[in-house]
Each structure stands twice: as structure tokens, then as C-alpha cells.
From TrEMBL:
<keyword id="KW-0805">Transcription regulation</keyword>
<dbReference type="Pfam" id="PF00392">
    <property type="entry name" value="GntR"/>
</dbReference>
<dbReference type="InterPro" id="IPR004839">
    <property type="entry name" value="Aminotransferase_I/II_large"/>
</dbReference>
<comment type="similarity">
    <text>In the C-terminal section; belongs to the class-I pyridoxal-phosphate-dependent aminotransferase family.</text>
</comment>
<dbReference type="InterPro" id="IPR051446">
    <property type="entry name" value="HTH_trans_reg/aminotransferase"/>
</dbReference>
<dbReference type="GO" id="GO:0003677">
    <property type="term" value="F:DNA binding"/>
</dbReference>
<dbReference type="InterPro" id="IPR036390">
    <property type="entry name" value="WH_DNA-bd_sf"/>
</dbReference>
<feature type="domain" description="HTH gntR-type">
    <location>
        <begin position="22"/>
        <end position="90"/>
    </location>
</feature>
<dbReference type="GO" id="GO:0030170">
    <property type="term" value="F:pyridoxal phosphate binding"/>
</dbReference>
<protein>
    <submittedName>
        <fullName>PLP-dependent aminotransferase family protein</fullName>
    </submittedName>
</protein>
<keyword id="KW-0032">Aminotransferase</keyword>
<dbReference type="GO" id="GO:0008483">
    <property type="term" value="F:transaminase activity"/>
</dbReference>
<dbReference type="InterPro" id="IPR036388">
    <property type="entry name" value="WH-like_DNA-bd_sf"/>
</dbReference>
<keyword id="KW-0804">Transcription</keyword>
<keyword id="KW-0663">Pyridoxal phosphate</keyword>
<dbReference type="InterPro" id="IPR000524">
    <property type="entry name" value="Tscrpt_reg_HTH_GntR"/>
</dbReference>
<keyword id="KW-0238">DNA-binding</keyword>
């Protein structure tokens, strides 16, 4: 246990950093709470005085005074006149005993044999854990902190934490969603895609991936046949396979999925028609009509993922759902790519009967997405912040795409790409013999992050010459030098291979 005046040890308990996202006062409180709950401070041991601790930590005395007072109010500390601050003995009333710690497990359970699905054997997601510290992060699906609407998001969270608002979301809502959020999705997001739905035709999910998992759980089983774009969204493929479905890889060309290649006996067709994942080509009007006609004729259900659809040069294509007159299209949307991927908020638009079943299923999974987040996002939409954000992102991404295309044309002319009408990535095809896996590994060593394209293909002989470059998290000024660095690495890699 530290002595009151042993300031070196005390300061070791307080790891204060100016780079932390927390205030200095909050960091001090967190450190004291952790030390108390970890039994590093005895109830009989006085804490250093506010003056001494402030001097040791290099902070204002008032900061420590406020931190101590907050902990007194919370019952972690007690203030004794002329003696200082002590740990409240009630907090340490039942200290854990060393002998109470359970021994290390020595289990002989064969969990691999007991599992019913092999989730861990599905293709893993591409992880760039340190992308934010990388100089040239050409990664997809992350955000740019400089474009995040910090002030607007704080405003909405403050509003959601008002006393009257808390009463609206703090109770268990069962299988319901925040009515204001449903209203805003109905009035603000869907009409932008040409979709007009009733409230009972919308359900909120924990992102688009959660939406696909719920649909697969409810509608698919062993032997279900799903036609999917190839190349296509790898996680959707894995989700459907975990449900027992058989996947039919359907080719893609410059007009999107080749509808004539979709098997007539497929039960479902999964498509990304606004921006094909990963090539970014839109599904042509003729193919859209043919897809809907085939679905009606063959009794098929279409699952439409609105992949990157909010970011199509400020004038998004109409969703496939907007053309659906037979109720055969299930539309999956998300706000992750516009607001922040960490918020995990998406939605499904479908017939009221299906939405009712999804609500019943969701109730057994997690009842509903966190209601406080739903209310904050509903306020964000209602105040026009999302519309303004989409315009800002579309403008920024358009400028970045142009800069990327120019750099590629100048520095990597042997790589072919299709200029997308918006979105946050570009798909590239390299010259014959290129192995992008090796290129990605070499590039990562030089602070350049790229995404190999082989993971998008559903075949044993996966082509190795494709890659996807994201632009959502790389600054405009880093694009050209990043491509210059990548071009040099690609040249050296090919020279070694030759």
C-alpha cells in the first residue's frame, strides 16, 4: 500500500495524459476509482492532499479538488476534517480473498465438436487495427475524424440526455423502436432513394450486417439457394452459409450482376445495385427490370443492400425497392458509412408481415438497439445535420476520388479502374502476374494500407490481381504521395517476382 506522502508511488497510480479523450478531472477520478476497487488503497490510508497531488501531476489544484469532491458525492471517498480524504470503508466492506479466486480451468469439453455452425472457419474480415496512425490509409469503411460532425453530434446527445428525453428512451421498449427515429428514416432517408414506406414496414438494426444476419436467421436454412454477385460482399456470403444456405456465385460485368446467369431455382438473390460491392458499378436500368421480372416469375425474394448509396454524387440512384410493386424486395440500409461505423445503426424496409416477424426474432436476440442511440440519431436527422453531413462528405469524397484517379493514371497507368459515380472506394485490376496479397504486405511496411481483392471472390482459383482503395479516411493531401509510394512498391515487387 502506498504511504500518503510517497508521491512517486501515488503518481504511478495516476496515469494522466493530455492526449486522452477524457478531461484531466475525469482521468484523476478514473484512476482513484480503479485503485480503490482494485484494493490498492486501504480505507485507513489518507490520500495525498489536493495541493501535493496537483503538483506531482502537473495540474491545477482546483482540478484535483473537483475530482475529490465528485468522488465524495459518489461515496467512494470520505472527507475528514483536518485529516484529509480517505477511502469510504463501505466500498471495501467485502474485499476478495486470494483463496476465493477460482483455479485455472482444465476443461476437457470439445467445443469444436459441439458447435452447430463453424463461424470461426469463415473468411475473417480484413483488419487494419492501426489504420488511424498510418500515413496512407487507403482503407474502406472507416471515417475521417476531420469530417465527423462533432459539434452537431454533441448537441444531439445533450438533447437526448435532457430529463424529459430520458423518460422517452430509458424504459425497456420491448420489440419497439424509437418512433421519432422510424419517422425520420421514413421521411428523411428513404425518400432520397425513392422509397415510401409505412412505419410498420421499417425496423431498426445494429447495422446492415446485423440486418442480414436477422434475415438469414429467419428466412434461410439448410438447402436454401442464394444467388450472389461474384465478386461480392464476403460477410453476406458467410452469414448466409452459416444459416445453411447454398451460394450460387453469379458473374458481374460493367452493368452489374448478369441477371441471365441467376439460377431459376434460387430462393433468394442478394444484390448491391446502387454501388456494386466491390467494383462500384451500378446495376443498369435494363438489368434492374429483368431482375424484378425474374423474381416475380420464379417466386424469388431479392435482398438489396444499399451499399454506399448515400454517397452517390449528392444525387443517389433510386433503390431497387422503389421499383418493387410485388413486395419481393427487402431493402437493407445503414448510416454507418455517413455518420460513423462505430455507431452500428441500420434498418430494414420490407412488408409489414415480414417486419413483424423480424421484431419477434429481434426480441429474443437483443430486444432493440440502444434507445439512447436511437434518440440521438433521430434528433441528428430531424435537425438536418445528416443532410448537411451527406453534402459535405459527397463533396470531399468527390474531390478525393478525382485526386486518386489522377494519381493512378499518372503513377500506375497499367492498373485499370472504373470511375464510380460517387461512393468511398475505387476497384483496381492490375496487370497479369500481380499478387496483391504480397503487394499489400510490402505496402503495410511502408505505412500504405490497401485491401487485396481476392477475398471478394467465391471460387477456389481466386484472382490475385485486384485491390480496393478506400478514400473515406485518407486526407486529400496524402493521396498523391501515397499512390507514389504504392507505385514504387508495386514496381519493386514485380521486379523481384520476375
Amino acid at each position: 500500500m502506498p504511504h500518503r506522502n510517497d508521491t512517486a508511488i501515488w503518481s504511478g497510480l495516476f496515469r494522466i495524459s493530455a492526449e486522452s479523450g477524457q478531461t484531466l478531472q475525469a482521468q484523476i477520478r478514473q484512476a482513484i476509482v480503479a485503485a480503490i476497487l482494485d484494493r490498492q488503497i486501504a480505507a485507513s490510508m489518507p490520500l495525498p492532499s489536493c495541493r501535493i497531488l496537483a503538483e506531482k501531476l502537473g495540474v491545477a489544484r482546483g482540478t484535483v479538488v473537483l475530482a475529490f469532491q465528485q468522488l465524495v458525492d459518489q461515496g467512494f471517498l470520505v472527507a475528514r476534517e483536518r485529516r484529509g480524504h480517505f477511502v469510504n470503508p463501505e466500498v471495501l466492506a467485502s474485499p476478495p480473498k486470494p483463496q476465493d479466486r477460482p483455479a485455472a480451468l482444465n476443461s476437457d469439453v470439445n467445443w469444436k465438436a459441439m458447435r452447430k455452425v463453424a463461424a470461426s472457419e469463415m473468411p475473417p474480415p480484413l483488419k487494419h487495427d492501426n489504420w488511424i496512425k498510418t500515413t496512407y490509409p487507403f482503407v474502406y469503411g472507416q471515417f475521417d475524424p476531420t469530417l465527423f460532425p462533432t459539434a452537431e453530434w454533441r448537441e444531439c446527445n445533450r438533447m437526448a440526455l435532457a430529463v424529459l428525453e430520458i423518460r422517452n428512451w430509458a424504459a425497456d421498449m420491448g420489440d419497439r423502436d424509437d418512433p421519432l427515429l422510424i419517422e425520420q428514416i421514413q421521411a428523411r432517408l428513404l425518400p432520397r432513394r425513392g422509397i415510401f414506406a409505412n412505419p410498420d414496414e421499417i425496423i431498426v438494426t445494429l447495422g446492415a450486417q446485423n440486418a442480414l444476419y436477422m434475415l438469414a436467421n429467419l428466412l434461410m436454412s439448410k438447402g436454401t439457394k442464394v444467388a450472389m454477385e461474384d465478386p461480392g460482399y464476403p460477410d453476406a456470403r458467410s452469414i448466409f452459409r452459416l444459416a445453411g444456405a447454398d451460394i450460387f456465385a453469379t458473374p458481374v460485368d460493367e452493368q452489374g450482376i448478369v441477371t441471365s446467369a441467376i439460377p431459376n431455382d434460387a430462393n433468394f438473390v442478394f444484390v448491391t445495385p446502387s454501388h456494386h460491392c466491390p467494383t462500384m458499378v451500378p446495376l443498369s436500368p435494363e438489368r434492374r427490370e429483368d431482375l424484378l421480372t425474374r423474381a416475380q416469375r420464379n417466386n424469388q425474394i431479392i435482398i438489396e443492400d444499399g451499399y454506399d448509396s448515400q454517397l452517390i454524387d449528392q444525387a443517389p440512384q433510386q433503390a431497387l425497392k422503389s421499383l418493387d410493386r410485388a413486395g419481393r424486395v427487402i431493402h437493407v440500409g445503414s448510416m454507418s458509412k455517413t455518420l460513423a461505423p462505430g455507431l452500428r445503426l441500420g434498418y430494414i424496409v420490407a412488408s409489414a408481415e415480414l417486419i413483424a416477424e423480424l421484431r419477434a426474432l429481434r426480441r429474443f436476440m437483443f430486444r432493440h438497439p440502444p434507445a439512447n442511440n436511437q434518440r440521438a440519431i433521430a434528433l441528428f436527422l430531424s435537425l438536418g445535420h445528416h443532410e448537411a453531413l451527406v453534402r459535405r462528405l459527397s463533396s470531399a469524397f468527390d474531390e478525393r476520388r478525382k485526386r486518386l484517379s489522377q494519381a493512378l493514371g499518372t503513377l500506375m497507368p497499367e492498373w485499370r479502374s472504373t470511375e464510380p459515380a460517387g461512393g468511398s472506394s475505387i476497384w483496381l485490376e492490375g496487370p497479369a502476374g500481380v499478387n496483391v496479397r504480397g503487394l499489400a504486405e510490402a505496402a503495410a511496411q511502408r505505412n500504405v494500407l490497401i485491401e487485396p481483392g481476392d477475398r471478394f471472390f467465391d471460387r477456389t482459383d481466386k484472382p490475385t490481381r485486384f485491390m480496393r482503395l478506400g478514400i473515406s479516411s485518407i486526407s486529400l493531401q496524402h493521396i498523391e504521395p501515397g499512390i507514389r509510394e504504392l507505385a514504387g512498391i508495386a514496381g519493386r515487387t514485380r521486379a523481384v517476382a520476375a
